[in-house]
Write a structure and sequence with these properties.
The complex is a heterodimer. By secondary structure, chain A is an alpha+beta fold. Chain A has 12 helices and 12 strands. Chain B has a 6-stranded mixed beta sheet with strand order 7-8-9-4-10-11, sandwiched between helices. In chain B, strands 1, 2, 3, 5 and 6 form a 5-stranded antiparallel beta sheet that branches. The two termini of chain B are 24 Å apart. Classes of the chains: A alpha+beta, B alpha/beta.
Chain lengths: 375, 230
C-alpha cells in the first residue's frame, strides 16, 4: 500500500509539491520556534548554569538573574560562617551604558566577579586572560557583542558608565537572553561603575558546600539564618530565571501559540490536499470497496500518503533547520536543536499528517459503492 | 445445486421524502455458470439498481437474493464485503483505474484486494493482461492507452481474481462500436472458458447478439427474457 500511495503522490506532482511545501513550512516553523525558545531559555540562565557553586543567595523576591536588586554585602560573611559552606563569592550583575565608538550609547549587562577565583566569570576565552581584570580599569567583552558594539579588539578602549576601560579579553558563548552585550569586570570595578549598587552592597552570593554535606539541609539552614534575602540551589535559581522569561513575560506562550498555529496550518494543508486527492480517486477507491476491499485496506493507502508527506517534509525541514542554526550563530542568536527536539518534532509531524488524513478516512468510510453505477 | 445468482420476488423501493419509487419490482432471476446475460432497458428501467443488488452493493427492500446458496438478505451489512470479495467482480463504464498505476499494477492491486499477493498474483496479472491482448501495454499508464484498452484492463482486473460472478455496468458506454464489441467478445470468451457467470447492464443493442440470455426491463419489472438461438 505504501508503494501505491507513493505512486499516487508521484503522479500528482504539483499537488504533492504543494503538500510538501506546506509540511516543510509548518514543520520548519515548529522547529524554528521550538529551537529559538530553547535557545532563549538556555541563554537566560547561561551564567548561572556555567558558574561553579551550589547555592545562590539573591535579594528578596528576585525574579530572575538579570533584574536582581542589591543587598548588604555583610550577608556574604553570614554565608561563609555557615558550617556546611566551603567557600563563597560575591557577584555583581547590573545594567550599564557603553559609549559607541562612532557615538551614541548601548545598554550592556555588567558582571563583576573575583577574577582570582573565576566564579561568575567567562568560562571560555577566545583572547586574553581573565586575571588581567584585577589590575585596574579593564573589561572582557563577549564575542557575541560585536554585532551590537562593532568590531572590538583586545587593547581597544571603551567608555563604560563614563569611565574609560581597556578591553583585555574576548570571551565566547556568553549570550544574553535580553540581547544586551555582557561585559565582565572585576567585582570592585563593577561596584564602582554602577552607582545604584552602592559600595557596601552585592547582587548575588554564590556558595559552594563542603563535600559530603547535604545541599537541601544547607539551603534550609541558610534560609532560616539569613533575613531579607532568598536562598536557592543552583538548579532552582536557573529554573526560576527560565520560568520568569518563559511564563511570566508571556514569551513562552507566544512561542507555544506559534507552534500550535503552525501545527494547525500544516494539518490543514496536508488534510486539504489529501482530501482533494482522495476525492479525485473516489471512484477508484469505490471500485476497490466494490470488489471486496475492506475500509482498512484503503485507509492504509491514505495513511501511507500522509506518512510519506510527513517524513519527506520532516527531512527537508530538518536540513533547513540545521542551516538556520548556523545562520543564527552568525547573527549572534542561539537556536537549540537537540536529539530529543528532533524526535519531538518528528512525532508532532507524524501526528499532524496522520490527523490530517482522518478527514479522508471519514470520507472513504462513507463511500457508497453505488456511486460507481452512475456513469 | 446452488446457482451463482438466484432471486425471488426481489424488490427495491426508494423513498424520496414522502414519495416511494419502486426501482425493481418482484424480479425472479436465476443465473448459471458459464452464462453471459444481458440486462436491457431504457434509462430508469431499474437495470442498474438490479445489478447493484445482485452485486451486494444495495440491499433489497423485499424478496430474496441468494449467491451460491448464501441467503444475502439474512446477512448483516458488515458481511457483504466478504461475499463480494469471494464471489463478485465488477466492470464499470468509467473503467475506474488508478491513473498513477500501470495496467499491470492496477490488475495487481485488484488481486491484492481479493487477497491474492506475491508471485502467484504477479503471474496471474501478467496472464490476464496477455489474455485481453495487452501483453505489450502492461506497463503503460491509463492515460497512455485508448478507451478500449483501458476497458480491457478493467476486464483483466475483474477476471484475474477467481470471482465466479462478473457484473458489468455499461462496459461499452464510453467506447466506439469496434472497441465495445471487442471488449464484449473477450469477456464472453473468457467467461465461457473459465465458467464464469457474467451479467451486463447495457442499452447498447449492437452487442445484443453476444448474450446467451437477454433480460428486458421496464419500469422496474422484468418484462421479457430472450434466449439466443444456439
Amino acid at each position: 500500500m505504501f508503494y501505491v500511495a507513493l505512486r499516487i503522490l508521484l503522479y500528482d506532482k504539483v499537488r504533492s509539491m504543494i503538500t510538501l511545501l506546506g509540511v516543510v513550512f509548518a514543520v520548519g516553523l515548529i522547529f524554528n520556534q521550538l529551537g529559538t525558545f530553547l535557545g532563549l531559555m538556555e541563554t537566560s540562565s547561561v551564567i548561572i548554569d556555567h558558574t561553579p557553586g551550589d547555592i545562590w543567595i539573591t535579594s528578596k523576591n528576585s525574579k530572575n538573574f538579570d533584574f536582581s536588586q542589591p543587598f548588604p554585602e555583610y550577608m556574604y560573611n553570614h554565608v561563609l560562617s555557615e558550617t556546611n559552606v566551603e567557600s563563597a563569592e560575591k557577584l555583581i550583575v547590573a545594567w550599564a551604558l557603553i559609549k559607541q565608538k562612532e557615538g551614541g550609547t548601548e545598554q550592556i549587562e555588567i558582571v563583576g566577579y573575583n577574577p582570582e577565583r573565576g566564579v561568575g566569570g567567562p568560562w571560555e576565552m577566545k583572547q586574553g586572560d581573565t586575571k588581567q581584570l584585577n589590575n585596574g580599569n579593564f573589561a572582557i567583552i563577549d564575542e557575541s557583542a560585536m554585532k551590537r558594539l562593532g568590531n572590538i579588539k583586545v587593547g581597544d578602549y571603551r567608555d563604560i558608565m563614563w569611565r574609560r576601560l581597556q578591553i583585555v579579553g574576548i570571551s565566547s558563548g556568553v549570550k544574553s537572553f535580553t540581547t544586551a552585550p555582557i561585559v565582565f569586570t572585576s567585582y570592585k570595578l563593577a561596584q564602582n561603575l554602577v552607582g545604584y549598587i552602592g559600595p557596601d552592597n552585592t547582587v548575588f552570593v554564590v556558595a559552594k558546600i563542603k563535600q559530603g554535606t547535604s545541599l537541601e539541609d544547607t539551603v534550609e539552614r541558610l534560609k532560616s539564618n539569613l533575613k531579607g534575602v532568598d536562598v536557592y540551589t543552583k538548579a532552582e535559581f536557573s529554573y526560576k530565571t527560565r520560568r520568569y522569561w518563559a511564563i511570566e513575560t508571556g514569551v513562552g506562550f507566544s512561542f507555544l501559540l506559534t507552534i500550535i498555529i503552525s501545527f494547525l496550518v500544516g494539518m490543514l494543508i496536508v488534510g486539504q490536499t489529501i482530501y482533494n486527492s482522495t476525492m479525485e480517486h473516489i471512484k477508484e477507491f469505490g471500485t476497490l470497496k466494490a470488489i471486496g476491499a475492506s475500509n482498512f485496506e484503503i485507509y492504509k493507502i491514505i495513511f501511507s500518503q500522509a506518512i510519506i508527506n510527513a517524513l519527506l517534509g520532516y527531512v527537508v525541514s530538518l536540513v533547513i533547520t540545521m542551516l538556520t542554526v548556523k545562520l543564527y550563530d552568525t547573527i549572534g542568536m542561539v537556536m537549540v536543536v537537540r536529539w530529543w527536539v528532533n524526535l519531538l518534532v518528528l512525532a508532532l509531524t507524524l501526528i499532524m499528517c496522520s490527523t490530517a488524513a482522518f478527514v479522508s478516512i471519514r470520507r472513504i468510510k462513507k463511500i457508497d459503492p453505488a456511486i460507481l453505477f452512475r456513469g | 445445486m446452488a446457482y451463482p445468482i438466484e432471486t425471488k420476488d426481489l424488490t427495491k423501493i426508494y423513498k424520496e421524502g414522502r414519495i416511494e419509487v419502486t426501482a425493481v419490482h418482484e424480479a425472479d432471476v436465476t443465473l448459471q455458470e458459464g452464462e453471459v446475460v444481458g440486462l436491457f432497458g431504457p434509462s430508469g428501467s431499474g437495470k442498474t439498481t438490479l445489478l447493484s443488488i445482485l452485486g451486494c452493493i444495495l440491499r433489497p427492500t423485499a424478496g430474496t437474493l441468494s449467491i451460491y446458496g448464501n441467503d444475502v438478505g439474512s446477512l448483516d451489512e458488515g458481511a457483504l464485503p466478504a461475499i463480494r470479495k469471494k464471489y463478485i467482480s465488477f466492470i464499470f463504464q468509467g473503467f475506474n483505474l488508478f491513473p498513477a498505476l500501470t495496467a499491470y499494477e492496477n490488475v495487481l492491486l485488484g488481486l491484492r484486494m481479493k487477497g491474492m499477493v506475491g508471485k502467484n498474483a504477479e503471474k496471474r496479472a501478467t496472464t490476464m493482461l496477455n489474455e485481453v491482448g495487452l501483453g505489450d501495454r502492461m506497463h503503460f499508464l491509463p492515460k497512455d492507452m485508448s478507451g478500449g484498452q483501458r476497458q480491457r484492463v478493467a476486464v483483466a482486473r475483474a477476471l484475474s481474481a477467481d470471482s465466479p460472478i462478473i457484473l458489468a455496468d455499461e462496459p461499452t458506454g464510453n467506447l466506439d462500436f469496434a472497441n465495445g464489441r471487442k471488449v464484449m467478445e473477450i469477456l464472453k470468451q473468457l467467461a465461457a472458458e473459465q465458467n464464469r457467470c457474467v451479467v451486463v447492464a447495457t442499452h447498447d443493442n449492437r452487442i445484443e447478439d453476444i448474450f446467451d440470455r437477454t433480460i428486458y426491463m421496464e419500469d422496474g419489472k422484468i418484462c421479457r427474457i430472450k434466449r439466443s438461438s444456439p
